[in-house]
C-alpha cells in the first residue's frame, strides 16, 4: 500500500508552454507556405512566357447569327491537344471560370464573366468528345466536354462542363457534324 501513497504524494506541476518556440514554428511554417505559393506563381508566369508565341484570341463578333446550341456551365481550362496535362495559360486560357457557350454557323462563342471571352471560328473547330479530365480537373468518364480547335499552328483542347451534363452528347454531335461539313466544303473548293 505504501507505493500507491508515495505516487499520490509526489508533487507534479503542469508543463509550461514554451510560447517562443511555438511561435517560431508557426512563423517558420507560414514562411514556408508563402515561399511555396511564390514558386507556384513564378511557374505560372514562366509557363505564360513560354507560350507567348500563341496568337491573340479572336474576339466574339457583335452578330453571331442564329444559335444552334447554348450551354451554361464551367470552363475548366485549355491544354495542348492530346496532352491533357500540358495546360495553356497564355491569353487567360488557364483561368477557370463560369462560361456561356453559343454554337452558331460562324463558330463557337465562349463568354466568360470575369475572364477573357474568345471566339472559335467554325473553320478552326476540329472535333468534340466526352472525356474524364483536363489539367487540374478529373471527373467521371464522359463528365467533361472537350472541344479541339486550331489556333495559329497549335491544336488546343478546351474543357467545359455543363450545368446539365445530359447536354454534352448533343454538343459532341453538333460540333462534329459542323466539322465534317466544313471539311467537305473545303475539299470541294480545292478540287475545282
UniProtKB/TrEMBL annotation:
Q: Which UniProt keywords apply?
A: Membrane, Transmembrane, Transmembrane helix
List each copy of the PH domain by range.
Answer: 54-175
Superkingdom: Bacteria
What residue ranges are annotated as transmembrane?
Answer: 20-40
Can you name this protein?
PH domain-containing protein
Source organism (scientific name): Streptomyces solicathayae
Amino acid at each position: 500500500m505504501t507505493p500507491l501513497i508515495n505516487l499520490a504524494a509526489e508533487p507534479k506541476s503542469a508543463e509550461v508552454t514554451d510560447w517562443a518556440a511555438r511561435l517560431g514554428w508557426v512563423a517558420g511554417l507560414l514562411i514556408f507556405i508563402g515561399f511555396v505559393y511564390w514558386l507556384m506563381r513564378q511557374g505560372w508566369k514562366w509557363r505564360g512566357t513560354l507560350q507567348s508565341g500563341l496568337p491573340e484570341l479572336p474576339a466574339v463578333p457583335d452578330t453571331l447569327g442564329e444559335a444552334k446550341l447554348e450551354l451554361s456551365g464551367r470552363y475548366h481550362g485549355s491544354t495542348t491537344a492530346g496532352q491533357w496535362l500540358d495546360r495553356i495559360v497564355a491569353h487567360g486560357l488557364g483561368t477557370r471560370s463560369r462560361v456561356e457557350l453559343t454554337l452558331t454557323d460562324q463558330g463557337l462563342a465562349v463568354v466568360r464573366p470575369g475572364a477573357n471571352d474568345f471566339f472559335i471560328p467554325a473553320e478552326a473547330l476540329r472535333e468534340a468528345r466526352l472525356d474524364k479530365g483536363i489539367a487540374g480537373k478529373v471527373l467521371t468518364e464522359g463528365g467533361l466536354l472537350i472541344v479541339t480547335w486550331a489556333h495559329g499552328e497549335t491544336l488546343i483542347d478546351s474543357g467545359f462542363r455543363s450545368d446539365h451534363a445530359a447536354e454534352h452528347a448533343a454538343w459532341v454531335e453538333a460540333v462534329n457534324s459542323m466539322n465534317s461539313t466544313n471539311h467537305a466544303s473545303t475539299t470541294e473548293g480545292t478540287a475545282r
